[in-house]
Amino acid sequence: MSTTQTLNNLIENGNRYANSLTEYSRRKTITVNVGDVPMGSDYPIRVQSMTTIDTLDTIGSVEQTIRMVESGCEYVRITAPSVKEAQNLDNIRKELRVRGYSVPLVADIHFTPNAAELAARLVEKVRINPGNYADKKRFETIDYTEIGYQVELDRIRDKFLPLVNICKEYGTAMRIGTNHGSLSDRILSRYGDTPLGMVESALEFLRICEDENYFNIVLSMKASNTQVMVEAYRLLCKKLNEEGLKAYPLHLGVTEAGEGEDGRIKSAVGIGTLLEDGLGDTVRVSLTEDPEFEAPVAKALIDRYSNRKEKSTIISAFTPTQHSALSTQNSFDSPINPFQYFRRNTHEVANFGGHNVPRVIADYSKIEVSEHEDLKSIGHFYLPLPDKWTMNDLGADYIYTAKNPAKYMLPMGLKEILDASLWAEQNDKLNKFPLFGIEAYQENTEKHTTLNFLSISLIDLTEELIRQIKADKTLVLAVETSNEHAMPALRRLFFELINQEISTPAVLVRKYDNLPESDFQLFSATDCGGLLIDGFGDGILLQLPDLSAKAELITKAKSYNSTAFGILQAARTRMSKTEYISCPSCGRTLFDLQETTAMIRKRTEHLKGVKIGIMGCIVNGPGEMADADYGYVGVGKDKIALYRGQNVVKKSVHADNAVNELIEIIKEDGVWFEAVNALEL
Ligand code: SF4
């Protein structure tokens, strides 16, 4: 099927999951009342988080809740694994009210309907996981007949109805929160481990609620895999529309995102991508850190959209009369399948496009590359004694030096891009590559024989330029936008490349002026991650801000390089680090998760591409880390279970020795190697 046929087919079938793919427009939802903090599209996007303290520790829970509220939480979730904890929610709530805090509380329920039924009488909202509310997981594949499946649904209805009735009677809200890692055997048997399975898992419960005229419901589709998570939320919106179900508010989250920079980038890639399309009514960022660190991250992600509508001007660039070369396009038409990842089809140019991983280009346009040390910050290290270069896993592929050519010969693994006018003056034109503007490119100037870069934005695409781009097999595009609604503006450009059947690789170029470092990480991860998740982007160039001191610029270059690799990893397009799928911990956690994660990271962070799950409890841990190659899961006080994939290898190892044992398992698989710390060279 040709690209055009694919486009027509997809548009005919309807891929609408958002109001618009070009203009910022928040999805219209019903209002859900959660205590006195309502949620939905008539209200601001709400921030929430979850306590990590034992729910039976009333004062500890109260004090942590207060810290969370002070940090920006508008709802606070507390685990209620059994009736005991559910009952204690009453004490926590009363003590909070005594201390003047009216924050709505949410009971987090897994497996225990009786705890849910009690909690629904005591707090403002309950969260159930449809994968384990009425089911015990047996990891069985059952071939259900239609009748057999219906019998199962009837069984769920019987177990679930009492909770629905209590919520109706008490005015309690409910989140039906699907987790990719804990789908029921029934769903897995019929739909597999897929976004569709996640959506159906929630809809089975939602249909029961609607039958009972209970609508005070929020939905979520969380996963640790950002591609799966984004696809599931989009599919959910489409399915709600198609089935004529109400437009319920969405709770957004990436599960087990991890800690520090990686956790923030991964959260931004998943959550930010959806916020860009106007999806999401409450956000929880899950970090393996104290919960009061989560709300500021969620708030930074949300606040970016507070006046986005006024700044969004992409539509005007589409008007065919203004730009006759551009295809006419409705604001929700998409030439790709937004519910399944496919990388845009490109031809290979040097090491861009085709089957190559996306490349990282470090911006050195403001840094004079005069000493070997200057490249350390982007992962390239000079060893004087053997007189050779080495690089670590975060070694940039290219540097863009603009008008400042490097003063010495660069290492083999690092290539240089210069502005075309400067490149033309170089003696060595073969090992450096030119970046053209449109005018210079279209003039018949000298070009490199194998690799040229062209800086473009959507508005530059004339019929003549489209013809030239198609004919030039040495070209890589550097795509830019000055639009505040940057991700959709660049996405619109990629749609155009597909519509025009242009298979030229394209590098994402972004610049952020005057942003604090933390916002830079989140915003670049949202903009570039959102595009990568849709299969767009064969490289990243994050431009440095305008600073004058070289030392400051080098420090920035280091952090930008790390962010670029982090974004590629979080969007699952290039693995350059060990991936840690660590839960945020909660009242069920039996060991210090943060300390343990740091310890495991220290020993294993050189194992590029290996995924290690670190989970606080055996009840949900194994399911939640479904994606991991190895798992470290708390099973009791000082007792750890170790996993290879989904299979438990050691059931009860003492915590003192568990990391060593985990490494032994990795060694048995031949995956282990000793770390060479290039940074200390
Ligand atoms: S996996 Fe972690 S966050 Fe989830 S229930 Fe267990 S301890 Fe709590």
Description:
The chain is an alpha/beta fold and 681 residues long. Helix content is 36%, strand content 17%. The strands form four sheets. Strands 6-5-4-3-2-1-8-7 form an eight-stranded parallel beta sheet. The protein has an eight-stranded parallel β-barrel with strand order 9-12-13-14-15-16-17-18. A five-stranded mixed beta sheet has the order 19-20-21-22-23. Helix 8 packs parallel to helix 9 (260-276). The model is unreliable at 1-13 and 315-322 (pLDDT under 50). Iron/sulfur cluster is lined by residues 583-586, 588-589, 615-617, 619-621, 624.
Strand order of the largest sheet: 6-5-4-3-2-1-8-7
The largest pleated sheet is described as:
8 strands, parallel
- Rough shape? globular
Q: Residue-averaged pLDDT, rounded?
A: 90
Which small molecules are bound?
Answer: iron/sulfur cluster
- Beta fraction of the residues? 15-25%
Low-confidence stretches: 1-13, 315-322
How far apart the termini lie comes to 53 Å
List the helices and strands and how they pair.
Elements lengths: L2 H11 L32 E5 L7 H13 L4 E5 L3 H16 L6 E5 L3 H10 L2 E4 L17 H25 L2 E7 L5 H7 L3 H17 L5 E6 L3 H18 L7 E2 L7 H17 L5 E2 L10 H10 L4 H4 L47 E5 L16 E4 L4 E4 L6 E5 L12 E5 H4 L8 E5 L1 H5 L9 E5 L6 H9 L3 E5 L6 H14 L6 E6 L5 H17 L5 E5 L6 H21 L8 E4 L10 H12 L6 E5 L5 H4 L5 E7 L2 E6 L2 E8 H14 L13
Parallel strand pairs: 1-2, 1-8, 2-3, 3-4, 4-5, 5-6, 7-8, 9-12, 9-18, 12-13, 13-14, 14-15, 15-16, 16-17, 17-18, 19-20, 20-21
Antiparallel strand pairs: 10-11, 21-22, 22-23
Helix pairs in contact: 2-3, 3-4, 4-5, 5-7, 6-7, 7-8, 8-9, 9-16, 9-17, 15-16, 16-17
The structure holds iron/sulfur cluster (SF4).
